Amino acid sequence: MVSDFIKDHWEKQASEYGDSHQASWADHFAIELEIETIGQYISEGDDVLDVGCANGYSTCRHLEKKVKSITGVDSSESMIAAANKRKSNMGREDKVRFEVGDIRSLQFNDRSFDVVYTTRVLINLPTWDEQVKGISELLRVCRNRGVVILSEAFWEPLVLLNSMRTLKQLPPLVEHDFNRYLKKRRLEEHLRSLNIKFEAIDFSSVYYLGSRFLRELVTNPADYPGYSNPINEIFYKIEKEFSGGGFGIQQAYVLRK
Predict the structure, then answer these.
(1) CB distance 70 to 50 below 8 Å
(2) Which neighbouring-strand residues pair with 97?
(3) In this structure, what CATH number is given to the domain that contains residue 17?
């Protein structure tokens, strides 16, 4: 399983926030962008695996795609308990199941799912070697001609965004202790070594530029605790129409088997 302090963090999040999106992340607009991006690759009749499902907030949203089934896996027992409560309240036991599991050793047969995706899960693994194990498992349980989506945080956009912040004497953004951002170059080299076709989707650059840089230049962040600054919603709406620029720390790699 993931390192104890990382697991403890997510157990605490589940206990504190229950079925709220804040259990996985307080940035509601970024989560919405994730859901919309991943949803583009889910079709009616698919068997879907959400690895790192947390409390099932995003997982259950994909039921709108009329999937055949969707399975959520998370290392946190408390998150899975909250997810199962959500499923029961929705009355969707026929389509959804949740279980405790480890991305590095998934308890599913080879080629079990049409779509397999993560949302900020590989970054919870402490080393690149363990992240590679996780990617290998995602590919293993995905069917031929299926899709694996890695919606993760990346190091290079963090550096670019911090360069912009330095120009305006703003403090740098940092990784949390429970995160190890992926390196885009390293990931791409690894995927090429496996002869895996992939596409990088930069779905959050405009949003990050607005919510992590411009907001501190045109508003007083102290007036808006957490992610409550109204400028975030403005840039979320712009992001839905325009993107690009390499500032999006959250990006999705779409892998084709």
Answers:
(1) yes
(2) 71
(3) 3.40.50.150
Helix (H, G, I), strand (E, B) or coil at 117: strand
Model pTM?
0.95
* Tokens found for residue 132: 């590679």
Residue 86 near residue 19 (C-beta atoms within 8 A): yes
CA dihedral 125, 251, 101, 174 (to 10 degrees): 40
Residue 162 lies in domain: 4-256
Give the pLDDT confidence of 31-64 residue by residue, as tens digits: 999 999 999 999 999 999 999 999 999 999 999 9
Please name the residue ranges forming H helices in 40-174. 57-61, 77-90, 128-140, 155-167
- pLDDT (tens digit, 9 = 90+) per residue, 111-163? 999 999 999 999 999 999 999 999 999 999 999 999 999 999 999 999 999 99
**pLDDT tens across 158-168, in order?**
999 999 999 99
Backbone angles phi, psi at 202, to 5 degrees: -90, 90
Tell me the C-alpha distance between 77 and 94, whole Å: 21
Q: What is the mean pLDDT of the chain?
A: 95
Looking only at the bridges linking them, the beta strands covering 96-100 and 113-119 are: unpaired
Torsion angle of C-alpha atoms 25, 1, 141, 88, degrees rounded to 10? -50
Helices (H), 97-255: 128-140, 155-167, 184-193, 205-209, 215-218, 231-239
Residue 176 CA to residue 250 CA, distance in Å, equals 14
At 2, is the pLDDT very low, low, confident or very high (cuts 50, 70, 90)?
A: low
**Count of domains in the chain?**
1
Distances (CA, A) of 245 to 12, 48, 138, 155, 242: 35, 31, 29, 15, 10
